[in-house]
Amino acid sequence: MKNKFVTLLASVGMCALLGAQTWIWYPGDYEIWLGNQMNNRRTERGAFFPPFWKTDSHYVVVEFSKEVDLPEAETIQLSVEGRYNVKLDGKLQFGMPDKLIIPAGKHKINIKVWNQLTPPALYVDGRTIKSDASWKVTYEDKEWIDESGKASDTSTTVYMDAGSWNFNSKTSRPSLFRLPCKPLLAVSSISVENGILYDFGRETFGYLDFSEMRGEGKVLIYYGESKEEALDTEHCETMDILSVQDGTVIDLALRTVHPLTNDCYMMESSKAFRYVYVVCDEQISVGKVSMQYEYMPETYRGSFQCDNDLLNRIWEIGAYTMHLTTREFFIDGIKRDRWVWSGDAIQNYLMNYYLFFDSETVKRTIWQLRGKDPVTSHINTIMDYTFYWFLSVYDYYMYTGDEKFVKQLYPRMKSLMEYVLGRTDSDGMVQGMTGDWVFVDWADGYLDKKGQLAFEQVLFCKSLETMVLCARLAGEMQDARGYEKLASSLRKKLEPAFWSEDAKALVHNRIGGNQSTSVTRYANMFAVFYDYLSEEKQQLTKQSVLLNDSILKITTPYMRFYELEALCALGEQEQVMEEMLAYWGGMLKEGATSFWEKYNPDEKGAEHLAMYGRPYGKSLCHAWGASPIYLLGKYYLGVKPVKPGYEEYAVTPALGGLKWMKGSVPVPRGEITVYMDRKTIRLKADKGKGYLYVAAKKQPKASVGELQKVAEGKYRLWIDTNQEITVHY
Amino acid sequence: MKNKFVTLLASVGMCALLGAQTWIWYPGDYEIWLGNQMNNRRTERGAFFPPFWKTDSHYVVVEFSKEVDLPEAETIQLSVEGRYNVKLDGKLQFGMPDKLIIPAGKHKINIKVWNQLTPPALYVDGRTIKSDASWKVTYEDKEWIDESGKASDTSTTVYMDAGSWNFNSKTSRPSLFRLPCKPLLAVSSISVENGILYDFGRETFGYLDFSEMRGEGKVLIYYGESKEEALDTEHCETMDILSVQDGTVIDLALRTVHPLTNDCYMMESSKAFRYVYVVCDEQISVGKVSMQYEYMPETYRGSFQCDNDLLNRIWEIGAYTMHLTTREFFIDGIKRDRWVWSGDAIQNYLMNYYLFFDSETVKRTIWQLRGKDPVTSHINTIMDYTFYWFLSVYDYYMYTGDEKFVKQLYPRMKSLMEYVLGRTDSDGMVQGMTGDWVFVDWADGYLDKKGQLAFEQVLFCKSLETMVLCARLAGEMQDARGYEKLASSLRKKLEPAFWSEDAKALVHNRIGGNQSTSVTRYANMFAVFYDYLSEEKQQLTKQSVLLNDSILKITTPYMRFYELEALCALGEQEQVMEEMLAYWGGMLKEGATSFWEKYNPDEKGAEHLAMYGRPYGKSLCHAWGASPIYLLGKYYLGVKPVKPGYEEYAVTPALGGLKWMKGSVPVPRGEITVYMDRKTIRLKADKGKGYLYVAAKKQPKASVGELQKVAEGKYRLWIDTNQEITVHY
C-alpha cells in the first residue's frame, strides 16, 4: 500500500511541476541576466571588477503564445515585466490590458514584451489558463503581412518552451529577486590601534550593519577571511569607505548616497569575511556592528555520520562551504571572484547531488555559463572549462533524468561544440590557441600547456560522447551519428598518441607529434574513471602515477577531487580515507572554518593565505574545497544512479577503515539511506530499483531476497522495494 | 588665394573630426540601442507593435582603453554611463573615480563599464587626453592572471575603434538624446458630431499639446493623415485615449500617469498626422489644441529649381517627405511602421546624398539594420533587403570615401554574407526558403516568388561584388579572392539562366531549372544600371520591357525609383521627366502634402488611402516616395562621384525638356553647383576634380580649358579648379 501511495504522490508532483502557475521567460534569459548581477558584484579593494569574457544579456523583445480550447469563457489577469501588447486570435488589443476575456472555444493568445533592463517576463492568472512551461516563446516570430493583409508562414519560427523558476505569485516579480538575510552578531571585538576588529566566529557572507552610527566623517572598513587580512589595511582584498555628513551616508566605492536614519546604516555591498576591521575618523563612531547573513535557502537532504569525529567535522565544514558558495548560482569562492566558473561548477553540481539535490541551481548555472551565441571564446575563456560544461549536462541528466532540459539546451550545446570543432588540429585534437586559457590546475610546479595535452583530449573525447547522448535525447539522430564518429575516432587515437611503455602511463602532452617525457596525474586519473584504459593499464597507472609520490603532487582540492575519485574507482577507499583525514583535516588544524581554494601542507602560517602574488589572494571559502561531501556519498555510502534520474541505482558501501557509518543520499522525490558497520548493511531507497553490492568473504544474508555472487568476494542483491533491507555479511 | 584658404579649412575640419572630444561607445551599440527606442514606438490603434525580427541589444560590459605618452602630468575628468572601474597601468583604482591624475610618460588607461539599460558610454576630458575614435574598445579583454599574478596574452583580443556621434559635451549623455521640437498651431478646427477636427495644414509629426484641459473624464484622440481617416474612429490607424481625474492624466495606451499642471498636458507618444479628431466626455473640455513638431535638425545642402513650377513643387514636397522620414534613423513612413527597413533605407541614403549629405544618419542606420551576430534571418526577414544592405555600404563609400567605416563594419558584412552563402542552392543561387520573405515590390498583380528569381540573383551578384571591394578595403585579401570567384561565377550564369530570346529580356524566374514565361521589370532594370547586359541587350530590354506598357506596371514609388533610374541611365531623361510630372504631379493633384507609399493613378478618392486590406493602411508620408530628389540631382543636374568621396566626379547635365535648371549637390565639405539652359552650362565644384560631359551638335566653348570630343555629339571637359566654369554649347 505504501508503495502505491508514493507512486500517486510522485505523479501528483509531476503534474504540479508541469502545470505550476509561475512567471515565465525565454529559457536561459533570466539565468543570464541574473548571472550578470552575480558576476558583477566582484570588487577588489573597492574597485568594481567584472569578468573578462563576453557578458551576454537577455533578448529584449520576446513573444509568449498559447493556444487554448475553453469549455466556457474565462477572464485572465496579466502581469508583465516590460512594455507589452496582447493579441487574441491575431487581433491586437488596445493599450496594455491587465485583464482579458477569452471566449469559449479554441483561441490563440500572443503577448509580446519589450524590456531593455530586465528579462521580458509574464504571469498569467486565469481559472484554467496559467503561465507555465507549456507556453511557447520566441525572440522573432517572423510574422509579416503581405499587401493584402495576409499573414506569413511562421512554420520555421523557432519556438521554445518558456523558462521558469519558482516565482509562483503575481507579486514575486523575477527582476526583484533577492536572497534572504538574517541577522548575525559578532562573537567578539577588540581595539587594535585606531580601530576595532570584529570577529564573527567563522567564515560568513553578507552585509555589515551599523546601528549606532553617530557623528560625521569617514568610516574605513577592511574585511578579512583571516585576522591578518582584516588588519592589513594596505593589502586586504576587499574594503569599503563610507563618508557620513549632513545625515547622509555616501558609499564611496559605489558612489551612492543614502539617508542615515535612526543612526542605522546597512552596507549596500555584500562581502565575505570572518573578521572586519573598522577604522573611524575622530568625529564619528559606529558603536555596535552586526551583519545580515545572506544565504540561499537550502534543505540539507544528504547526511553522513561515522565513528570518526574528524571525518564528521570534515563533512560538516564541507557542507557549510557548499552552502556559502551556493548562491544565485554555484560560484567559485565567496570573497574574491564570486563568479560562475565552469570547472568549479561541475564539482558543485556533483556535491550538490549528495547534499541539497537543488536541480534548479544546477540548471540556472548551466544556462548562465553557456550564455548566448555567437561563441567567441571558451567558457570562462578556459578550454577545459568548455569540456566540463558538456560533461556537467551529462551528469545532470544521470542524476535527475530531466530529459526536457537537455532538449531545451541542445541547440546551445551544438553551437558550442561547433566552436570547439572549428579549432581542432589535423589530428582532430585540441591545442591551446592564442586567446585560449589552458588551465588544468593551479600546480606547484611547471605544467606545460603547449601542444596536444593528453588531459584535454580525454575531456574532449568525453564531451563528444556526451554530445552523442544529448543529440539522441533531442531527437537529432544525424548529429548523433556525426558526434559518434568523431568520438570513436578520437578515442582510438588516445592510447597510440599518449601511452608510454617506459612510463607505464599516459604522458602529459605531445608536441609536433612527439610525446614529451613528462607524466602528470591529470590525464591518467580522468582516463581511469572514464574507463578509457584497459584493466591492465588502469592498474599500471595506479602504481606508476596515482600512488607514486615522485609525480608532481596535487595541491588544490579542485584536482584532489578527481585524484581521490580515481583512487576510489580503483577500490582504494582506505587510502583515500587517510588522504581525506590528512588533507582536509590539515586545513581544520590550521583553523579553517570553511575549505580553501588551495592547501599545501608544507606551507606555514600566513603562507597559507597568499596566492596570485598577493598576501591574501587565496580564497578561504572555495566550493571546490568541499569534495568530501561527494566522495563520502558516492564512494563510501556508495550511492550512484545507473539509469537517468535513479530509475536504477547502484549502492556499493565501503567503510574504508571506519567502524561504522550512516547517511542519506537525496534522489528525485526521496532519498536512499545507508547504514554500515563491519557486519551489517541496512539500505532503504525511496525511489527506483537497483543492486546493492557487498564485498564479503562468504555468502551474505539479506532480510528480503538473496544475494548472487558476481566475482570472488563480491555479491549483489537486486532491490525493488522501498522497505528497509538488512544484509548480514 | 581662395583655393588655398578652402584647403586649409578642409584640413582643419579633418583634424576636428578625428580628435573631437566626444562620448564614445562600442561601435554599432548605441545605434542598435537607439534603434530599439525607434522601432518600438510603433503603435496600431493604441497597441504597442514591436518588430517581428530579432531585436538585438548593446554589449552590457565594455572596456575602453588608451595608451598615452605625456610630456607632463595631467588630470582627466571622467563621465561614464554605467558602473565602472578604472585601471592605470594595470592597477585598479578605488571606487568609481571621476578624476584621475596621469603622470608624465607612457601610460595605459583602461576603463570597464557595465550597463544593462543603456550602452556603456564614456566621456574623458583632459588637457590632451580626450575620448574620441582613437580609443580602443572590446567586449571581452580575455585578460586573466595565472597563479603568480601574471597577466595573460591578450594579442588575439578583438579591439575596435570606439564609436561616437556628436555628443561633444560632458552633459550631453547619449542615453538622454531626444530630437528637438518646436510648437505648431492647427490651421483650422471644425466641430464634427461630438468632437472637433483639427487640421495642421499638411502632413506633420510630433506630440499633441493641450493647454486648456479642464474637467474630468475621457479624451479620445483619433489621428489621420487624411480627413477621412481622422473621422473614421473605428478604422483610423492610430489613436490615443486619456483619462483625466483628480488632477492627473492617465495615458491608457501606455498606462502612464502624469500630473495635469495649469490645465496643460502634452502627449507622451509622438504620432504622424495632418488631422486630429478629438472627442471629449461631457464633463471635460480640451480648448486649444496645438502640437510640438519633432524633427531631425538638417541643413538642406542640395537644391533644385527650374522653369517648371510643378517640378519645383515636386522637389520641395520630396525634400519635406525626406525630412519627415529622416529621424533618429532613416525610416520608412512616419505614421504606421516607423521602423528601419533596409530596402527603404538604401533609397533614403541615395536621396540624402543629394539633399542633406548627413553621413552620420546613414552610418547609424546601417549599423542598426545589421544588428548583431548570430544572423538568424535576412535583414527585416527580407531576402532582397539583405542585398540592399550590402549595396548601401558600397554607395556610402562612393559618396563619402569613408574607408574607416567600411573597415569597422567588415566583420558584420562577412558574417551576414556567410548566412546568405549558407542558403544557396546547387546552382549557387538564392531561392526563398521557408521563413524568408521574398519581397521584390508591392505589385498590383501576381508576382511569382518561387524558385530562382532573376531579380534576387542580380542583387546577390552585386552584393558579392561589393564584398570584393570591402574585403580589399579591410585588408582581407583572401576573402576578396573568395568573393571574386563567387561573384564572377554567378555573373556568368545570369544570362544563360534568365535571358530569353523570345522575350528579348530576362525572364522573371526559373523553377527546377526551367525558365518561366513571365517577364517583369525588376531584374531587367537592375541589370541595366549594373551594366550586367551587353549594350545590345540593354537596348533590346529598353524596348521589350522598360518602355513596354504591356509589362506589369509599377505602382510603388519604391520601384519607380529604380525604373526611372534605369531609363535615365539609358538616356531617357525626357521620358522620365514626363513620368515624374505625371506620377508625382498626380499625387500633388490628389492633395498630397508629402509623398505616398504607393500610388496608382487609376484609383479614385478614398481608394488611395487603403492598403493591407485596411481602409487607411497606406502611409501617406513614405521615404521611398521622395525619389525625384535623387533623380534630379544625379540625372538632370547630373552630378555623381567617380572615385570615392568625390575625389573625382562626373557632371552630365541634362535638361530633359526643361528650359533651364539650377541647383547644387552636396559633396564632402562643399558642394557642386550646376546651372544649365539651352545654350549655357555653369559649374562650380568645391572639391575634387572631374569631367563635365556635354551633349552638343558642335564643339562647345569653355571659359577655362578646352572640351574634347568623346563620341558623335558628346564632349567633355576636365576640371581641376574650384572656380566657376562656363560652357557655351
Write structural notes for this entry:
The structure is a homodimer of 729-residue chains. By secondary structure, chain A is α+β, with helices and mostly antiparallel strands. Among the domains of chain A are: 21-166, Sandwich (Jelly Rolls), CATH 2.60.120; 181-294, Sandwich (Jelly Rolls); 371-534, Glycosyltransferase; 645-728, Maltose phosphorylase, domain 3, CATH 2.60.420. The first copy, chain A, is built from 15 helices and 41 strands. In chain A, strands 14, 15, 16, 18, 19, 20, 21, 22, 23 and 25 form a 10-stranded antiparallel beta sheet that branches. In chain A, strand 32 and strand 33 (648-651) form a beta hairpin. The first copy, chain A, is globular and about 80 Å long. Mean pLDDT of chain A is 94; it is low at 1-18. Chains A and B meet through strand 3 and strand 6 of A and strand 3 and strand 6 of B.
Which key phrases capture this entry?
homodimer; 729 residues; alpha+beta; Jelly Rolls; Glycosyltransferase; 10-stranded antiparallel β-sheet; 6-stranded antiparallel β-sheet; Bac_rhamnosid6H (chains A, B); Bac_rhamnosid_C (chains A, B); Alpha-rhamnosidase (chains A, B)
